[in-house]
Input
Amino acid sequence: MFNKILIANRGEIAVRIIRACREMGIQTVAVFSEIDRDALHTQIADEAICIGSAKAADSYLNMSRLLSACIVTGAEAIHPGFGFLSENAKFAEMCADCNIVFIGPDSNIIDMMGNKSNARAQMIAAGVPVVPGSKQILSSVEEAKALAVEVGYPVMIKASAGGGGKGMRIAHTEATIDEAFSTAKMEAKAAFGDDSMYMEKYIEEPRHIEFQIMGDKYGNIVHLGERECSIQRRNQKVLEEAPSAAIDDELRAKMGAMAVKGAKHVGYENAGTMEFLLDKHKNFYFIEMNTRIQVEHPVTEMVTGLDLIKEQIRVAYGEKLSVTQEDVKINGHAIECRINAENTAMNFMPSPGTIEEINLPGGLGVRNDIGVYRGYTIPPTYDSMIGKLIVHAETREEAIKRMRRALGEFIVQGVHTTIDFQYAILGDEDFISGKFDTSFLTKKSF
Ligand code: ADP
Output
């Protein structure tokens, strides 16, 4: 097994990875920016090395500094976490060139699946259902208009390089397509430096259902069931569950088999997620693949009993998957609430600052993946998610009650958080009934 791993990330996911490494007897190297000297991940790793100033481009996104840190500390592998360089094919390739194991798929796969338009083309070739739409990049707004007539309005104009809900716009009629096309393009250019666009039919009131995939170097690929991610704000996930109230065993087997088929088609390896939209008639369509561990991976861990970070490390080292498809059993129900330092009364404006007090919930079936502590100052520089609260129980109903109980114990003073907002969702009748779709939060006024 690896002796030492460098974690090219910060916050709760860096803490999560350090924990897995420690249980595996692997030494850890944290990297930190100047503003993160006191961050939790910096403090709990075996070694910590400063890689630059607060600006992500000078630190967490700086490939040569990360590789230098790896070389000087003698780390044999890099875990990229999510965000930052986790889906950067060039970084994965540079790691390979330096004889450092990138804990994730090969750079060619990241390259192929990271571009959403390309990924669609791959899935079409694999025989996986995709949302009706373009087969390649749209060359002009005229082409978009012609295709929209074919596909039927409303349509969605989406950035090939998109992520985090950015660079996508709906056009309901031909009159609005010019604007949708140009604003999505501008947003994509600013966020990703790439403004290539593709089109999908806009699926009315779908559920976002994704399948966790895990593959090894020997062609074995399993799915670990689905996650329900329909509770979204501005196309970004807020709360996730496993399993989904909309999926029965038959549909799980069908969608899971498609997810595995798609992943096998591209020779997938390590952890990945196949994202689908499920319409009212239970038709499902692939939308994108994430070639990394995801924020919401803990709900899958709770219901399968597998540690996905350890599994990622093992398969990256060259071990076979620890489970076969038959071994995978879904036990009970898990819910995750993302806890962000944001002011919900001020349109979810980030709320950085010092945590004066914090009381973390506990008890049976409660898990905190939190990257902060009392006295810690959340910098204004990075993502506002400070951690996740996860619960596990026998049934969905009990998991909801447990999450409400845990959120009630969760106290943070000094900064605003989304704790009360999450509490309101957990108490909503439509949420409790399990009958909701991605439009849930736009229809509510929590
Ligand atoms: P990102 O890569 O930015 O996360 P996705 O393609 O995964 O973008 O889409 C994010 C969310 O946007 C989906 O979960 C869904 O709510 C909505 N969405 C995306 N494509 C469509 C579509 N064709 N029809 C309806 N909703 C969509």
